[in-house]
UniProtKB/TrEMBL annotation:
Site (Important for autoinhibition of adenylyltransferase activity): 44
Protein name listed in UniProt: Cell division protein Fic
Gene Ontology biological process terms from the UniProt entry: cell division
Domain of life from the UniProt record: Bacteria
PANTHER family: FIDO DOMAIN-CONTAINING PROTEIN (PTHR13504:SF38), FIDO DOMAIN-CONTAINING PROTEIN DDB_G0283145 (PTHR13504)
Binding site for ATP: 195-202
SUPFAM superfamilies from the UniProt entry: Fic-like
Source organism per UniProt: Dactylosporangium sucinum
Length: 321
């Protein structure tokens, strides 16, 4: 999985010009933005469906009959995700030279949590624990037995976490997704805020990824149980399952959202980047092997084709039918 991700990212950087900014490729980022806001809030129990999320984020309309707090959860997350994508790729005055700053951690949480907090604040929060401020309460043990540190030590632990983030050197670590998994898991262990730590942690994970030239990771709601099990494994010192989940998500987003949009109609792409809901990667490979889809086989045995060649293949299929 890690090798596949490295190869996909190398192709994006070397042949396709790297990750485009939100201003350069608005459609790519809108698709990722909707999916992330929907799935990340759904992991926490939000019941809005994807179409409701899209209407809310794009048009500001609350369609359906869900509780107001659920719409505000999604709106806050969507605002924070948009901020993350913009700041990651065009940081302006926010970037201090570090990969992530403590000020940015607070800003991500403030942006994500303020809308819902305005109408449904945490029932036990003091005035000093509003969005963007660290907790002043103790947190009970997690289901796996891990207990976050006492609230008085949160600031110190978060400064150590910032150092951990900024020590990431992906080009010198073979299994770098496991290092990234350790960073993500450590944030959740510290649990710096009274509420919204899962959402803030996934947003910060994506801030780090984008600043390193990778697309965001989307933890899909269907993978919620797998994600939570992987977090518990990481609590026990085994970051592998979480690292694999992150790597698989980033690779999927590269193939699904980024590569097809930046390649244009004629550039050669790996078959996973050309697959659709109606035409699977396996179907494309079979057509390439049989000579029905124009494609080129690489030295490593993988096939590449283009959007134009796939369109030609679909047209020829219709003619045969």
């Amino acid at each position: 999985m890690y090798q596949r991700l490295d190869e996909a990212v190398a192709e994006l950087r070397d042949r396709l010009g790297g990750l485009p900014s939100p201003a350069e490729a608005e459609d790519i980022w809108s698709d990722i933005w909707h999916q992330e806001a929907h799935n990340s809030t759904a992991i926490e129990g939000n019941t809005l469906v994807l179409q409701e999320v899209e209407k809310l984020l794009e048009e500001g309309r609350a369609v359906g009959a869900k509780p107001l707090s659920e719409y505000m959860e999604v709106k806050g997350y969507g605002d924070a995700a948009k901020w993350v994508y913009g700041q990651a790729l065009d940081p302006g005055g926010w970037q201090s030279g570090d990969l992530v700053s403590l000020q940015e951690v607070r800003q991500v949480h403030f942006t994500a949590m303020t809308p819902v907090w305005t109408i449904a604040p945490h029932p036990h929060a003091s005035a000093a624990e509003s969005p963007g401020n660290f907790r002043q309460h103790e947190i009970a043990k997690f289901p796996g037995g891990m207990k976050p540190p006492t609230w008085a030590d949160v600031d110190s632990h978060m400064r150590s976490w910032i150092d951990m983030v900024n020590d990431l050197r992906l080009d010198s670590v073979a299994a770098w997704p496991e290092r990234l998994a350790g960073v993500h898991n450590r944030f959740e262990q510290v649990h710096p805020f009274l509420d919204g730590n899962g959402r803030a942690g996934r947003l910060l994970l994506n801030l780090i990824l984008c600043r390193l030239g990778y697309p965001p990771a989307i933890i899909y709601k269907r993978d919620r149980d797998k994600y939570l099990r992987a977090m518990r494994r990481a609590d026990a010192g085994e970051p592998g399952p979480l690292g694999e989940l992150i790597a698989r998500s980033v690779t999927t987003n590269l193939y699904r959202f980024v590569m097809p949009a930046v390649a244009g109609p004629v550039k050669l792409l790996p078959l996973p980047a050309l697959a659709t809901s109606d035409l699977s990667e396996n179907a494309l490979r079979t057509a390439a092997v049989r000579g029905r889809l124009r494609a080129i086989k690489s030295d490593d045995g993988s096939w590449r084709s283009s959007k134009k060649w796939v369109a030609d293949y679909i047209e020829s299929k219709h003619r045969r039918s």
